[in-house]
Design brief:
Structural class: alpha/beta
Strand content: 5-15%
Strand order of the largest sheet: 2-1-3-4
Distance between the termini: 23 Å
Largest sheet: 4 strands, parallel
Order of helices and strands: EHHEHHEHEHEHHEHHEHEH
Shape: globular
Helix content: 40-55%
Number of helices: 12
Number of strands: 8
């Protein structure tokens, strides 16, 4: 199956391994991955900050860059939500946006389109899952990420109390309401620490930047890892390093 990959500007700039992991995973599952080098931001940050004109221009560019792709997959829940929830309204300002192809978050694509729950992954660690707000409330991904994680060889999925509560990032919210954001992520990392997890994963790098930053300051050894990286891991062949 031929799919376009949109990695999101935050992922491209700060978490490139998420994009590389998504490519490895999709190719392992038989997908031909198209990565247009011209891709930029989907406009989500501009839209949520009130810069409607700038968001409209970026949305039109997204539609043009991925024109010809039957389907676009992204490891960013917030970007998928932007395309699905807000592009239709922006298309009233700029008709080119209506050409944007169907866009799915990675776990939606794996479970709903490929029908893959066991993706052949191996990750022998205790893992807690934090659902991004957009995945939970806009995309309604439900238990898809958990179903995928439960099939990963060697992975022990631990319960994260209050998992559905926001981590406090929320784009501009984190710096416009810094005190509240810090309090929210403090609650989140305290629960992660109490869960016994070695790794916390999510379906959005924005959440992982917020949570991972707080965890690093605590120096407790818990790592923040994107779900795509876990699903891309496989057991190494004898005498070979893990990829």
């Amino acid at each position: 199956m031929r799919v376009g990959l949109f990695v999101a500007c935050l992922t491209d700039a700060v978490f490139p391994e998420t994009g590389r992991a998504a490519v490895r995973l999709l190719r392992r599952l038989g997908c031909a991955v198209v990565y247009p080098q011209e891709q930029t931001c989907c406009g989500q940050a501009h839209h949520t900050s009130g810069y409607r004109r700038e968001a409209t221009g970026l949305a039109a560019r997204f539609a043009e860059v991925f024109d010809g792709c039957e389907l676009v997959v992204t490891p960013s829940a917030s970007c998928a939500a932007m395309v699905r929830d807000h592009y239709p309204a922006l298309a009233g300002r700029e008709p080119r946006i209506a050409r944007a192809p169907r866009t799915l978050e990675l776990t939606e694509f794996l479970v709903d389109v490929l029908g893959a729950v066991d993706v052949g992954a191996s990750f022998p660690h205790r893992v807690a899952y934090h659902p991004a707000c957009q995945a939970l409330r806009s995309l309604r991904t439900g238990d898809r990420p958990l179903r995928l994680l439960r099939e990963v060889r060697g992975l022990e999925l631990v319960e994260l109390p209050g998992a559905e509560e926001c981590c406090g990032f929320g784009g501009a919210f984190a710096w416009k309401n810094a005190d509240t954001s810090v309090a929210m992520v403090a609650d989140k990392v305290r629960r992660i620490g109490g869960s016994g997890a070695e790794v916390v994963c999510s379906d959005d790098d924005a959440c992982l930047m917020q949570i991972g930053g707080a965890l690093s300051r605590l120096r407790g050894g818990v790592r923040a890892v994107h779900l795509a990286e876990i699903l891309a891991e496989t057991a190494p062949a004898p005498g070979r390093a893990r990829r």
